[in-house]
């Protein structure tokens, strides 16, 4: 871009190029569960809560831990680790519930720990090999340090198994 911008059209074209580049960046919350580092767009995250009492319900799948009353709103709570076919999450001091909004449906997911919010370039996300065996994950990205982060498929999360 060493050329001089000499008219309004050139300036607008440059602005559109910069907007296109930024649109591939998604702000994501990273967390750990089942020995994996997972991420989900912050567009779906409402809040993170700790030490909340879960009321169990009869006749529910094992991964549905029950419901919580969050400021008058009743939310189902799911153990993401169990939903992925692993054992239940152990409640340690770092375990918490991430409250999500998926297509105007609120639910909580129990995770081992929350890591950080970071920008992930969606151009670097690759499909997961053997995707048919893992229905809740829809992509993976390798970070600069060699660690692999996996993306939670919000639509699959909201649909009962």
Overview of this structure, please?
This protein has 161 residues and is mostly beta strands. It has a single domain (2-158), classed as CheA-289, Domain 4 (OB fold (Dihydrolipoamide Acetyltransferase, E2P)), CATH 2.40.50. 15% of the residues lie in helices and 42% in strands. The protein has helices at residues 8-22, 80-83, 154-158, and strands at 25-33, 36-41, 45-49, 64-70, 73-79, 96-102, 105-111, 113-121, 137-142, 148-152. The strands form 2 sheets. It has a 5-stranded mixed β-sheet. Strands 3-6-7-5-4 form a 5-stranded mixed β-sheet.
List the helices and strands and how they pair.
Layout: H1 8-22, E1 25-33, E2 36-41, E3 45-49, E4 64-70, E5 73-79, H2 80-83, E6 96-102, E7 105-111, E8 113-121, E9 137-142, E10 148-152, H3 154-158
Parallel strand pairs: 2-10, 5-7
Antiparallel strand pairs: 1-2, 1-8, 3-6, 4-5, 6-7, 9-10
Q: Outline of this structure?
A:
The protein is mainly beta and 161 residues long.
Entry keywords:
161 residues; 15% helix; mainly beta; 5-stranded mixed sheet; OB fold (Dihydrolipoamide Acetyltransferase, E2P)
Q: Enumerate how many helices there are, as a single number.
A: 3
Mean pLDDT, nearest integer?
A: 83
Q: Under the CATH scheme, which architecture would be assigned? A: Beta Barrel
Overall number of structural domains: 1
As for the CATH topology, it is OB fold (Dihydrolipoamide Acetyltransferase, E2P)
The percent range for strand residues is 35-45%
Helix content: 10-25%
Give me the count of strands.
Answer: 10
Largest sheet: 5 strands, mixed
> What is the element string, with H for helices and E for strands?
HEEEEEHEEEEEH
CATH class category name: Mainly Beta
Structural class by sheet pairing and helices: mainly beta
CATH homologous superfamily descriptor = CheA-289, Domain 4
Shape: globular
Cα gyration radius (Å): 19 Å
Distance between the termini: 51 Å
pLDDT < 50 runs, ≥5 residues: 1-6
- Strand order of the biggest β-sheet: 8-1-2-10-9
């Amino acid at each position: 871009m060493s050329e001089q911008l000499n008219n309004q059209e050139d300036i607008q074209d440059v602005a559109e190029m910069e907007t296109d580049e930024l649109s591939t960046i998604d702000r994501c919350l990273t967390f750990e569960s089942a020995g994996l580092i997972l991420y989900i767009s912050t567009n779906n995250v409402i809040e993170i809560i700790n030490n909340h009492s879960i009321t169990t319900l009869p006749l529910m799948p094992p991964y549905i831990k029950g419901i919580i009353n969050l400021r008058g709103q009743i939310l189902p709570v799911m153990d993401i680790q169990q939903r992925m076919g692993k054992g239940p999450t152990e409640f340690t001091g770092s375990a918490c519930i991430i409250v999500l909004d998926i297509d105007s449906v609120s639910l909580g997911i129990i995770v081992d720990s929350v890591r950080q919010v970071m920008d992930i370039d969606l151009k670097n996300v690759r499909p997961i090999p053997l995707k048919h065996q893992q229905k809740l994950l829809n992509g993976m990205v390798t970070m600069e340090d060699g660690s692999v982060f996996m993306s939670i498929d919000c639509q699959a999360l909201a649909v009962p198994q």
